[in-house]
Amino acid sequence: MDHLYPTTTNESVLLLDEALVEAADGVEREVQPGAKVPFVMEPDADKPWEYGGPGLSRRIYLYGTVLHDRGKYRMWYFCRMGPHWRFADGNHQIPGLYMPRSDEKPYHYHGATADRYGRAFVDNDRGDLTCYAESDDGIHWRKPELGIFTFDGRADNNIVWDLHGASVFVDQDEPDPRRRYKAIGFCRRYRNIFLLCSADGIRWDDRDDLEPVARRGNEGTFNVVYDPRGSVFRAYSLTRLDDRDKRRIICYSESPALAGPWKDAVPIFEPTHWDDEIGRRKYGALRAEFHNMSAFRYNNLYLGLLGVLYVTAEQDPDDPHQMPCDGPIDAQWAYSRDGINWQHADRARTSAIPRGAGDAFDRGMIIGTCKEPVVVGDEVHWYYSGAENTHGGKLEYRVKRIGRATWRRDRFVALAGTGEVATRAVQVPAGARRLQVNADARAGQLRVELCDVDGRVLAGFAREDCASITGDDLRAEVRWQGGDVPAGAVKLRFALAGARLYSFTFVD
Questions:
Q1: What's this model's pTM, rounded to 2 decimal places?
Q2: DSSP single-letter state for residue 283
């Protein structure tokens, strides 16, 4: 039975997976873009750790986490202050996190070489900060004055730590209430990956976790998700190819626990010549790079929101403070069956969250996303960073805000058209009696037939025995004259007439 495609009772199966589809005729893959709202958060002019001042960068990123927790939405986001010499009004200090020099040699903390525990600092003066916000509806956000750190002597800020991308978890099995919340991410002060713990997700402590849990040589995010099926934590981060262009690619690590041991990161996903060709056709790009990927388990698959940088120009050699290359960043769906081997959702590399047009806040880049979406009821919300500028835009034009895209349950990629889709043999889970489909058949209809593993139609379960499905329904009941779904292994054939099909579910 190992050759059968596995299913689970009451858990939908996405037809996105090409390994599930045995044959298809007359239908095409359609990437469904998320429904966007105007940005939900922007850098505040009265918060200098977010807003550098007129003519300077204003940057907040969703390299971080959004959870629906304690009856509200909670966000741990990232902002980049520095380097300090870019600020017009002084030498900002955050004791314990950020103590820049007063000159333009941005690689010390006012002469200090180590923290209070004796951990050595590395060359760094970026001022990366983790900040906290919360919301009742996921749209309107508050940045509370927490008083945990002082900024230039003032405690009226929402700064909670300085991880570059905080992956936050609520550990319901943790017996120590002081460690109920856990965060892992890249800390630029030490240039390694560290674990933090907290009782409330706001006041973090590292005194019991002084050693890095993983070592990381670059500044890329260490995006961590938990996979309950394998009882394993999976991390996706940035590395570079050893080619002429040193192009960015995605690498992977895993661990049985946040505290480790973490396996050495290995490259798993890199651009192909076809990605380069897509960039050339769309933007006249020189090459494609994979800038970041947020990945998570979603029912039968792992889904990844991949940030693809299409490099249109190299750095101006006379301006060393600008980014090394320029170009837009698109957000595209990728998927995997094991979390390691990934492929794109479609050959056209359609944007999952399209960049905005005109003067939209995200017209230049979808530059980073939270570690995984927030699923509330039948809606999937994904928070992301949108930028007006492209990757190498001048400092004064770098404005980044946080937006939100929403999909209805399972509706990321559709098989659409008029034709037929046949699956490989699937195992009907024990106890399942009914079949539901997630489909939009408002412009037509959909019917389903069941076959044995050799492709022979089961008596009473032909498409002619199936009541036509019309309308738009996340859980449309499939009814046959033959009655309940038979036990064992079956193949499904979907007959579409002007319909979109997203997933199916065996239910009890």
A1: 0.92
A2: H
CATH class, domain 35-408, is mainly beta
* Domains in the chain: boundaries: 13-32+413-507, 35-408
368 neighbors 357 (Cβ within 8 angstroms): no
Read off the tokens for 26: 């007359």
Stretch (H or E) spanning 470: strand 469-478
Which tokens sit at 365?
């880049």
Give the mean pLDDT per block of 10 residues along the chain (508 residues): 82 95 96 95 88 70 92 92 53 70 50 75 71 97 96 90 92 94 89 93 92 74 89 92 83 94 93 97 97 93 96 78 83 96 97 95 92 95 94 75 97 98 96 97 97 96 97 97 95 98 97
Please report the DSSP string for 327-394 in residue order: --EEEEEEEESSSSSEEES-TT--EEEPPP-TT-TTSSEEEEE-SSPEEETTEEEEEEEEESS-TT--
**Architecture of the domain delimited by 13-32+413-507:** Sandwich (2.60)
Per the CB < 8 A criterion, the answer to whether 328 and 362 are in contact is no
